[in-house]
Each structure stands twice: as structure tokens, then as C-alpha cells.
Amino acid sequence: MSTITLTKAERISIYRNNYYKVGKPYLKIMRRFGGPFIIALSLYNYYFVESSFIQSLSGFTLVFGIYYTLKPIIIPFLKPRLFEGYTFQFQITPDKIILQEGDAVSELEHQFFKSVQQNETHYALRTSKNEVLHLPKAQITSQEASRLNNLITTN
After folding, report:
1. Contact (Cβ atoms closer than 8 angstroms) between residue 28 and residue 21
2. How buried is residue 111: exposed, middle or buried, by Cβ count under 10 Å (0-12/13-18/19+)?
3. From CA 100, how far away is CA 79, in angstroms rounded?
4. What's the whole-model pTM score?
5. Residue ranges, the chain, pLDDT below 50
6. What pLDDT is recorded for position 154?
7. What is the reported pLDDT for 146?
């Protein structure tokens, strides 16, 4: 069994990476350009629109645009419990994946995972309930990596 340790910094890095790169194309575009677009629109409304009602709303939209732009930086400070580090044991067999944390042991068959994806730093195992298990490539053995690569091609 391999021991997987995800530190707070690694979890924040994974969150920020997934925030911009995971999801449907329109969601990726909206997350990347939506905040700056809202900021630009609110500044335009404040300086170039004559209506005092629209100008008063531009302050709210400016704050929302700044929040939306900085959300990947703000969320780890607002919800620190989501990013606490943890350690668990991991083993992959030809027919299942075994996870152990303390006294709790979970055996998950390969069909339980909706998809298995990889990027430059980790594997992401997604369940049907939209839960994701992240496995850093640096902390798993080459045999486990090859089995995960086989799952990528079959899922």
C-alpha cells in the first residue's frame, strides 16, 4: 500500500487548477473572463451612463466582479476546513481500489468510478456522485501508475 499525503498547499493548488481547467467549455470561459467583464461593465455604467440608478448598481456589480475574479484566492481563506491536509493508504488491484484512513477501509470496484483523468501532477478519480479522489503522481508506485493508466483508457 502506498501512503498518500495531501498537504494544505497541494489541495489549494489542485482546487485552483481545477477551477479554471475542469468543466464544460462555457464554464471555463465564464470563470476566466466573467469577472473582468463584469468589472469593465460596471466601470462603464458608472462613468458613461446618465441614470443615477444604474450608477448606484455599478458599485455592487464592481464588488461582485472583483469577488468573482478573485474567488480562487478567496475561497481557501473563507472555507479553510475544505483544504486541510490528510493522509491515507492507497492500493490498486486488478479489480478494485482499496483506501484506508485510520481504522476505516473502503474497497471500491473500478466500475464505481465514472472517469479517471490525469494531468501533469496528479490523477483524478471521479465517482458518480461528483466526488473526486486526487492521487499525486509523485506519491504512487510505477505499478499503480500503470494500472491507473489502464483505467484511463477503459473509462
Report:
1. yes
2. exposed
3. 25
4. 0.79
5. 155
6. 55
7. 87
